[in-house]
Amino acid sequence: MILKLILKNLWARRRRNAWLLAELILVTVLTWYITDPVFVLSYNRSLPLGYNPDGLLIAQLNNLPSKASGYSEEESDSLHTMQNLQRLLQELRNHPDVQCATPLITFAYPASDGMAMSSLMYDTIEVTSNVYYFLPHSGYFETFGFRGVDGKIAQELDNMDFENRDLILTEDLVQRLTGGTSLTGKRFFNTQGNDTLDYRIRATIEKVRTMTFEQGMGCRFEPQLRLQVSELESAGKLLFRLRPGVSEQRFLHEFRPWARKHLRAGNLYVRNADNFQQQIDQREYEWGVTNKYRMNVALAIFFLTNLALGVTGTFWLQTRSRREEVGVLLSYGASPNNIVRLLMGEAAVLATVAWIIGCFAYLQYGISEGNWFQQGEVTGDLYWINNFSLHFIAVSLIVYVIILTVVLVGVYIPARSISRILPTEALRDE
């Protein structure tokens, strides 16, 4: 009964409602345009990294120049350099606040400034992936906190004996290569130039994201069996994890004087350490993601605030102008609650129709522009947000909640006010 009355009232006021409908359609399109990038960025940033950055610290590995005081020519060869690296690691691991530590021997590791990429082919499927190098038996997987998906824990991965061209893959890379079929223990061949390389998959770990603002493209971990001293000297770092409950701020404050006394071996030394999360934040800032995210959020807040004020004000005035009509309904025995439900029902129907039309209009724009789901070109259907239909439905529902909330707030307050006046007063005012 009330729905019939709502539709009758909307039709009776169709000229005025047509302007309201047009306004709401435009607002829906603009809300979609503003909300979508914030939604995508927020979703990507919320995805698990594949490791825990809390309590993770990183220190630059330095090498004395040949003309520096204390430089030893005898300690500069590969054998002594590796021995000195192990001495530094052992000193760091012996610190009572340190749980584990590992060397980073190249510029490529999660959230690093550099990146190494290579293609991997299984059967006829070729996939590009990030490449990370690690020293076997160095605590690399334990320190990062990577987790295996085939029953292996991080310590087991660190204790494995690796051969040349052994690989550890992330589960998203396996998914893209095989559709989810395990590759652990299997061999396959890749052709690089005139060479045919034989690879063996030793284990699979959970997804690891290189950058926090992207979904990731799959990673492969290769053991570095022959360490190049030049790489260690130019890009070497020490990564270590604090024990649970240890204050990072206190540790970093005390680290420099402690490192000056203990972290010197041959020509290698360490002076400072940084919070690993700060490196992640710095990477986001350098790539412009931080400013982009802040700008989108600020723009969304500004727009939605003005949207709320504009739409709420419009429906507030429209509702207040219906005092006479409300007075007539009250004189015929309508209760204040019935009046409120009627007016809010009309607004809800109007908002719903506008939302449907507005979303359909934006759908046409998105398809014509061809700029939907660029992120999904790499990760495919590994994440539900890259599914066209699911993405559109999710953002559309968010937009609907925003529009409906704003409209109903703009109606409820004045509707509640005018529904409680005396019928004679309402009619007299008019």
Note down, in words, how this protein is organized:
- The protein starts with a helix and ends with a helix.
- Helix 10 packs parallel to helix 14 (388-418), helix 11 (323-331) packs antiparallel against helix 15 (423-429) and helix 12 (336-369) runs antiparallel to helix 14 (388-418).
- With 430 residues, it is of the alpha+beta class.
- It folds into 2 domains: 2-47 and 288-429, no CATH class; 56-274, no CATH class.
- The radius of gyration is 31 Å and the shape is elongated.
- It is built from 15 helices and 13 strands.
- Mean pLDDT is 81; it is low at 371-377.
- The protein has helices at 2-12, 14-46, 78-93, 140-144, 154-159, 171-178, 229-235, 248-262, 276-286, 289-320, 323-331, 336-369, 376-379, 388-418, 423-429, and strands at residues 56-60, 62-63, 98-104, 117-122, 125-134, 166-170, 187-192, 195-205, 219-223, 237-242, 264-265, 268-269, 273-275.
- The longest helix is centred in the C-terminal third of the chain and has 34 residues, at 336-369.
- Strands 4-5-9-6-8-7 form a 6-stranded mixed sheet.
